[in-house]
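Table S7 (text form). Paired inputs.
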Amino acid sequence: MAEQQKEPLSATVNKVLDEYLAALHADEEINSEAADRLDALLRKGKVPKFEDIDAVLFPPPKGTIP
C-alpha cells in the first residue's frame, strides 16, 4: 500500500494539540502511552476514523491475536 503524504498542520492546530496533550498527561486517570498514541494519530493531518481512535486508546492486551 502506498504511503499517504502527511498534510502540514497549521501553527494554531499544533498549539491546540500541544495543549491537549499537556492536559491528557496532567490527568492521572489517562495512561501516558495512550495519550502519546492519540497525539501521534491526531498529528497525521487527516481526520482519524473512530476505529483508529479506539485502537490507540484501548490496544489489545499483549499476547492476544487481533
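Next pair, protein 2 of 2.
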Amino acid sequence: MTETRMMAAKTFFARLNEGRREWLTADQLVNGCEEFFRLNNFTSIERNQEFEASLPFTSPIVGSDGKQTIATILRPRLDKYDMNFLGSLESVLFAILDNYENSTLALVTDSLSYNHLAGAEDLGVAIENLMDEGMYLLFVNGRSGFALFDEYKKISMPVAVLED
C-alpha cells in the first residue's frame, strides 16, 4: 500500500541528491524533463520547439497535457551570479505568457542547485518574482527524481512523498 507523508524540504533534497557529485548536462536535463512529462501524463512532448513572439525562442523540450503547455529553458547549475540570465528568462516568460494561450515556462535545473537557490537571497528573490508571474521551477536529479514548484514559498515547505 502506498502512503503519502510529509518530509522537510532540506531532507527531501538531501535524499534526492544523495551520492551525487557531478552536475547534470543540458542533454541529461532534457532527458529528465521528457521522463517527467511522460510520468505526469503529458500526451504531447516535442523537442526544439520554436516560439514566435517579439522575442523568438526555441525551447529544448515542451510538454502538453491538453490543458496546459509547458515550455522549458535549461540551466544545469544555478548560482548567485545568474542575475543576467534571470533577466533574459523574464523576457522569455513574458513572451510565452503574452503570445500563447494556456502556456507557461519552466526553468529546469539540476537538483543540486537547490542549496545555491536556498542560500542566495538575490537569486531567490529573482526566482520568486518570476514564479509570481507564472513560471514553474523543475528540479531534476537524473535518477528519476523530480520536484516541480509553481510557487516559490513551496520550495522551503514540507514536500509530500509517496512511500510503499
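The chain has one domain: 3-163.
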